[in-house]
Amino acid sequence: MYVMVYTTCESKSEAEKIATILVGERLTACVNYFPVRSIYSWKGAVEKAREYILLCKTQKKNIKRMERRIKELHSYECPAFIAYPMNYGSKDYLRWIKENTD
């Protein structure tokens, strides 16, 4: 099974660093990242921030390792980590993910 992992980072440089390491360690085949504005509750206050969303394509078997690695690399005390199942993907694309992840 294949999944899309969602996380956010506080800066472009952090997003690039985490993405590069995850791809280099074959935990994910690809990471897309893009800027976003977030409004969220944190420790009893409403916060506003500019962040970067990362979308990581990988195999389900890598989820726990990815979560640990993101926590190690991340500047946030509680980084977002959500894995969505891929209900469909082209055979060629899914094979590419499999070939580029451990």
Provide a concise account of the structure shown:
With 102 residues, the chain is an alpha+beta fold. Helices cover 32% and strands 39% of the residues. The chain contains three helices and four strands, in the order E-H-E-E-H-E-H.
Structure write-up:
- With 102 residues, this protein is an alpha+beta fold.
- It has a single domain (2-87), classed as 2-Layer Sandwich (Alpha-Beta Plaits), CATH 3.30.70.
- The chain is built from three helices and four strands, in the order βαββαβα.
- The relative contact order is 0.31.
- The mean pLDDT is 97.
Outline: elongated
Separation of termini? 13 Å
Provide the CATH architecture: 2-Layer Sandwich
Tally the beta strands: 4
Mean pLDDT: 97
Task: Pick out its properties.
102 residues; alpha+beta; Alpha-Beta Plaits; 4-stranded antiparallel β-sheet; 3 helices; 4 strands; elongated
Topology:
Layout: E1 2-9, H1 12-24, E2 30-42, E3 45-59, H2 63-73, E4 82-85, H3 91-99
Antiparallel strand pairs: 1-3, 1-4, 2-3
